[in-house]
Amino acid sequence: LKRGTLLKQIVSLPIESDPVRLKLLHLMDRLTVYLYYIKDDMMPLVMFRNLQWTLKYGLNNVTPASLTTMGIIFAGILGDLKEGSDCAQTALDLISKSKVSPLVEGRTLFVAHFAGVIWTSPMRDMIKPLQRAYNAALRAGDKESACWAIYCFILYRFQTGFSLDLVIKDVEVYMPQMLELNQIVAYHCTLGNYQWFMNLAGRAETDPFSLVGDFLSIEDHKKWSIDDAMYEGLSRHWKCYLLTVFGEHHQCADL
């Protein structure tokens, strides 16, 4: 099928009703999540098998989650931002029109607004849906999606012009929850944001260019930079932002 006709065909499909296939689809959806966690190359194949079954047998509870994953592949790997956004929007349309589990709803809302429709819509429009994703994922026990949704919620509020005082309060409310839920990577990245925000607000007693000191220890910063590629990338982003804000453009370019 051509890309332009695939999404139109999906939304017009009947509803799948076979209980055995629905159970198998649910298991494949959980397998997709597991393969993502372990960075296995089989993940896209399982996701496309879910979509193949959707096209063959009808819409089901996990179709929206599969569409958001397909959107990431289009946008992040193939560079087709519009198609990636269209996949995410179709997934959102499906969860608004049909009953899906809170597990699928939370993950779909998070991924669609973090890496899907944001490519073709204002970032500020992502904020409320991300908070909804946080609530839905928590209800379903999907702690990882919940914590990453609220991480993006805080970051997007900062990037769209909310006051630093308000954003800092957000961090102070949600960061302990991440630790309590044992979502350590999200906690690390949020703690780095916290140091960054406090530097920008003039509340850090150390060097305003430093990402360690008041709230983030040197030991933790070094360890997390080695252990977590996402944290390392974010820390470079934070450092460049601080250098730019405080006028050290040459240092930023060197970094």
Structure description:
By secondary structure, the protein is mainly alpha-helical. 73% of the residues lie in helices and 0% in strands. The chain contains 13 helices and no strands. It has helices at 3-11, 19-37, 43-57, 63-77, 81-97, 102-115, 127-140, 143-159, 164-180, 184-200, 218-227, 229-245, 249-254. α8 (143-159) runs parallel beside α10 (184-200) and α10 packs parallel to α12. The longest helix has 19 residues, at 19-37. It is elongated. The N and C termini lie far apart (45 Å). The mean pLDDT is 86.
What is the H/E order?
HHHHHHHHHHHHH
For the report, how would you describe the main beta sheet?
A: none
Please give the radius of gyration in angstroms: 20 Å
> What form results from the Cα inertia axes?
elongated
Count all strands and give the number: 0
- Helix/strand class: mainly alpha
Q: Total helix count?
A: 13
Distance between the termini: 45 Å
Mean pLDDT: 86
Q: Proportion of β residues?
A: under 5%
Contiguous low-pLDDT stretches (5 residues minimum) are none
Task: Tell me the helix content.
Answer: over 70%
Could you name the key traits of this structure?
13 helices, 255 residues, mainly alpha, 73% helix, single chain
